[in-house]
Amino acid sequence: MKIDFPRISPELSLRNFNDIFYEEDPILEMCKIEGSAFENEALDRVRLYNSVIKNCKFTNTDFSNIDMTDVCFENCDLSNVNLSKSSVHRVEFKNSKLIGVNFVESSIGNVKFENSILNLAGFGNSKLEKVIFEEASLKSADFYDCKLKKVEFQKCNLDGANFDQTSLKGIDISSSAFDTLTVSIESLKGCKVSSYQAIQFATLMGLIIKD
Protein backbone atom coordinates (compact mmCIF):
# COMPACT_ATOMS: atom_id res chain seq x y z
CA MET A 1 0.00 0.00 0.00
CA LYS A 2 1.24 3.44 -0.90
CA ILE A 3 0.64 6.34 1.45
CA ASP A 4 1.35 10.03 1.09
CA PHE A 5 4.47 10.90 3.06
CA PRO A 6 5.11 14.24 4.77
CA ARG A 7 5.85 17.12 2.42
CA ILE A 8 8.56 18.97 4.26
CA SER A 9 10.44 22.04 3.08
CA PRO A 10 14.25 21.73 2.77
CA GLU A 11 14.60 25.07 4.54
CA LEU A 12 13.46 24.92 8.17
CA SER A 13 14.03 27.36 11.00
CA LEU A 14 14.96 26.20 14.51
CA ARG A 15 12.06 26.56 16.92
CA ASN A 16 10.80 25.23 20.27
CA PHE A 17 7.39 24.49 21.80
CA ASN A 18 8.20 26.95 24.57
CA ASP A 19 8.17 29.67 21.87
CA ILE A 20 4.38 29.35 21.53
CA PHE A 21 3.46 28.44 25.11
CA TYR A 22 1.72 31.75 25.85
CA GLU A 23 0.27 32.35 22.38
CA GLU A 24 -3.48 32.49 22.02
CA ASP A 25 -3.32 30.72 18.66
CA PRO A 26 -0.27 28.41 19.00
CA ILE A 27 1.22 27.43 15.65
CA LEU A 28 4.58 26.03 14.56
CA GLU A 29 5.34 25.63 10.87
CA MET A 30 8.35 25.21 8.59
CA CYS A 31 10.53 24.47 11.58
CA LYS A 32 12.94 21.96 13.07
CA ILE A 33 12.83 21.11 16.76
CA GLU A 34 15.75 19.07 18.05
CA GLY A 35 16.86 17.89 21.49
CA SER A 36 14.01 19.69 23.22
CA ALA A 37 12.05 18.70 26.34
CA PHE A 38 8.42 19.79 26.76
CA GLU A 39 7.13 17.45 29.48
CA ASN A 40 4.18 17.60 31.88
CA GLU A 41 2.74 20.63 30.07
CA ALA A 42 -0.63 21.45 28.51
CA LEU A 43 -1.05 23.21 25.17
CA ASP A 44 -4.49 23.06 23.58
CA ARG A 45 -5.30 23.27 19.86
CA VAL A 46 -1.71 23.48 18.65
CA ARG A 47 -1.19 23.59 14.90
CA LEU A 48 1.98 21.91 13.70
CA TYR A 49 2.80 21.95 9.99
CA ASN A 50 5.75 21.17 7.73
CA SER A 51 8.17 20.29 10.54
CA VAL A 52 10.84 17.83 11.67
CA ILE A 53 11.04 16.90 15.35
CA LYS A 54 14.06 14.86 16.50
CA ASN A 55 15.31 13.58 19.85
CA CYS A 56 12.61 15.37 21.85
CA LYS A 57 10.71 14.41 25.01
CA PHE A 58 7.01 15.20 25.47
CA THR A 59 6.03 12.72 28.22
CA ASN A 60 2.76 13.39 30.05
CA THR A 61 1.99 16.50 27.98
CA ASP A 62 -1.55 17.40 26.92
CA PHE A 63 -1.72 18.18 23.19
CA SER A 64 -5.45 17.46 22.83
CA ASN A 65 -7.12 18.85 19.67
CA ILE A 66 -3.74 19.19 17.96
CA ASP A 67 -3.70 19.57 14.17
CA MET A 68 -0.60 17.99 12.58
CA THR A 69 0.14 17.90 8.86
CA ASP A 70 3.45 17.11 7.12
CA VAL A 71 5.44 16.29 10.26
CA CYS A 72 8.19 13.76 10.98
CA PHE A 73 8.98 12.62 14.54
CA GLU A 74 12.27 10.77 14.95
CA ASN A 75 13.69 9.27 18.17
CA CYS A 76 11.07 11.07 20.26
CA ASP A 77 9.37 10.12 23.53
CA LEU A 78 5.61 10.78 23.48
CA SER A 79 4.73 8.38 26.29
CA ASN A 80 1.41 9.17 28.01
CA VAL A 81 0.86 12.17 25.73
CA ASN A 82 -2.75 13.22 25.23
CA LEU A 83 -3.44 13.53 21.49
CA SER A 84 -7.17 12.95 21.77
CA LYS A 85 -9.51 14.57 19.25
CA SER A 86 -6.54 15.30 17.03
CA SER A 87 -6.11 15.55 13.27
CA VAL A 88 -2.97 13.73 12.16
CA HIS A 89 -2.21 13.64 8.44
CA ARG A 90 0.93 12.89 6.45
CA VAL A 91 2.91 12.24 9.63
CA GLU A 92 5.72 9.76 10.38
CA PHE A 93 6.82 8.41 13.74
CA LYS A 94 10.24 6.76 13.48
CA ASN A 95 12.02 4.92 16.31
CA SER A 96 9.79 6.67 18.82
CA LYS A 97 8.20 5.74 22.13
CA LEU A 98 4.43 6.26 22.37
CA ILE A 99 3.61 4.09 25.39
CA GLY A 100 0.12 4.89 26.65
CA VAL A 101 -0.39 7.65 24.07
CA ASN A 102 -4.02 8.76 23.74
CA PHE A 103 -5.35 9.08 20.18
CA VAL A 104 -9.02 8.67 21.19
CA GLU A 105 -11.59 10.27 18.84
CA SER A 106 -8.94 11.28 16.30
CA SER A 107 -8.67 11.38 12.52
CA ILE A 108 -5.46 9.68 11.38
CA GLY A 109 -4.59 9.47 7.68
CA ASN A 110 -1.45 8.77 5.66
CA VAL A 111 0.51 8.05 8.83
CA LYS A 112 3.37 5.60 9.39
CA PHE A 113 4.54 4.26 12.75
CA GLU A 114 7.94 2.69 12.13
CA ASN A 115 10.01 0.75 14.70
CA SER A 116 8.04 2.44 17.46
CA ILE A 117 6.58 1.32 20.80
CA LEU A 118 2.84 1.90 21.19
CA ASN A 119 2.08 -0.45 24.07
CA LEU A 120 -1.15 0.52 25.88
CA ALA A 121 -1.88 3.17 23.21
CA GLY A 122 -5.54 4.19 22.93
CA PHE A 123 -7.17 4.68 19.51
CA GLY A 124 -10.80 4.24 20.61
CA ASN A 125 -13.52 5.82 18.44
CA SER A 126 -10.96 7.00 15.90
CA LYS A 127 -10.85 6.83 12.11
CA LEU A 128 -7.65 5.42 10.61
CA GLU A 129 -7.19 5.51 6.84
CA LYS A 130 -3.98 4.69 4.99
CA VAL A 131 -2.01 3.94 8.15
CA ILE A 132 1.01 1.63 8.33
CA PHE A 133 2.30 0.10 11.55
CA GLU A 134 5.71 -1.35 10.63
CA GLU A 135 7.63 -3.44 13.18
CA ALA A 136 5.73 -1.64 15.93
CA SER A 137 4.91 -2.97 19.38
CA LEU A 138 1.19 -2.60 20.07
CA LYS A 139 0.87 -4.77 23.17
CA SER A 140 -2.49 -4.13 24.87
CA ALA A 141 -3.27 -1.28 22.46
CA ASP A 142 -6.95 -0.34 22.33
CA PHE A 143 -8.72 -0.04 18.96
CA TYR A 144 -12.25 -0.08 20.41
CA ASP A 145 -14.96 1.00 17.95
CA CYS A 146 -12.49 2.26 15.34
CA LYS A 147 -13.03 2.63 11.62
CA LEU A 148 -10.06 1.05 9.83
CA LYS A 149 -9.59 1.56 6.10
CA LYS A 150 -6.38 0.54 4.32
CA VAL A 151 -4.52 -0.11 7.57
CA GLU A 152 -1.52 -2.45 7.59
CA PHE A 153 0.15 -4.18 10.52
CA GLN A 154 3.56 -5.29 9.23
CA LYS A 155 5.55 -7.55 11.59
CA CYS A 156 3.96 -6.02 14.68
CA ASN A 157 3.42 -7.32 18.20
CA LEU A 158 -0.36 -7.24 18.72
CA ASP A 159 -0.47 -9.30 21.90
CA GLY A 160 -3.40 -8.31 24.08
CA ALA A 161 -4.69 -5.70 21.61
CA ASN A 162 -8.41 -4.90 21.73
CA PHE A 163 -10.44 -4.72 18.50
CA ASP A 164 -13.85 -4.92 20.15
CA GLN A 165 -16.59 -3.35 17.99
CA THR A 166 -14.03 -2.82 15.18
CA SER A 167 -14.30 -4.55 11.80
CA LEU A 168 -11.05 -6.05 10.51
CA LYS A 169 -12.43 -6.64 7.02
CA GLY A 170 -9.61 -6.18 4.51
CA ILE A 171 -7.00 -5.75 7.24
CA ASP A 172 -3.88 -7.94 6.96
CA ILE A 173 -2.38 -9.07 10.27
CA SER A 174 -0.75 -12.23 8.89
CA SER A 175 2.85 -11.10 9.51
CA SER A 176 2.16 -9.95 13.07
CA ALA A 177 2.30 -11.91 16.33
CA PHE A 178 0.04 -12.27 19.36
CA ASP A 179 -0.86 -14.78 22.06
CA THR A 180 -4.25 -13.25 22.83
CA LEU A 181 -6.45 -10.77 21.01
CA THR A 182 -9.84 -9.29 21.90
CA VAL A 183 -12.00 -9.49 18.81
CA SER A 184 -15.42 -10.88 17.93
CA ILE A 185 -16.07 -13.55 15.30
CA GLU A 186 -18.19 -11.02 13.41
CA SER A 187 -15.36 -8.49 13.34
CA LEU A 188 -12.92 -11.09 11.93
CA LYS A 189 -14.85 -11.57 8.70
CA GLY A 190 -12.60 -10.65 5.79
CA CYS A 191 -9.48 -10.29 7.96
CA LYS A 192 -6.29 -11.66 6.38
CA VAL A 193 -4.50 -14.04 8.74
CA SER A 194 -1.79 -16.69 8.53
CA SER A 195 -2.63 -20.38 8.84
CA TYR A 196 -1.03 -20.41 12.30
CA GLN A 197 -3.18 -17.45 13.37
CA ALA A 198 -6.28 -19.20 12.07
CA ILE A 199 -5.53 -22.06 14.47
CA GLN A 200 -4.93 -19.51 17.27
CA PHE A 201 -8.32 -17.90 16.66
CA ALA A 202 -10.01 -21.27 16.55
CA THR A 203 -8.43 -22.14 19.90
CA LEU A 204 -9.39 -18.78 21.41
CA MET A 205 -12.95 -19.44 20.33
CA GLY A 206 -12.97 -22.71 22.18
CA LEU A 207 -12.66 -25.08 19.22
CA ILE A 208 -10.76 -28.31 19.74
CA ILE A 209 -8.56 -28.98 16.73
CA LYS A 210 -7.76 -32.62 15.94
CA ASP A 211 -5.11 -33.86 13.54
From TrEMBL:
Family matches, as InterPro entries: 5peptide_repeat (IPR001646), PA_immunity-related (IPR052949)
Alphabetical list of Pfam families matching this protein: Pentapeptide, Pentapeptide_4
PANTHER family in alphabetical order: ANTIBIOTIC RESISTANCE PROTEIN MCBG, PENTAPEPTIDE REPEAT-CONTAINING PROTEIN
This protein's name: Pentapeptide repeat-containing protein
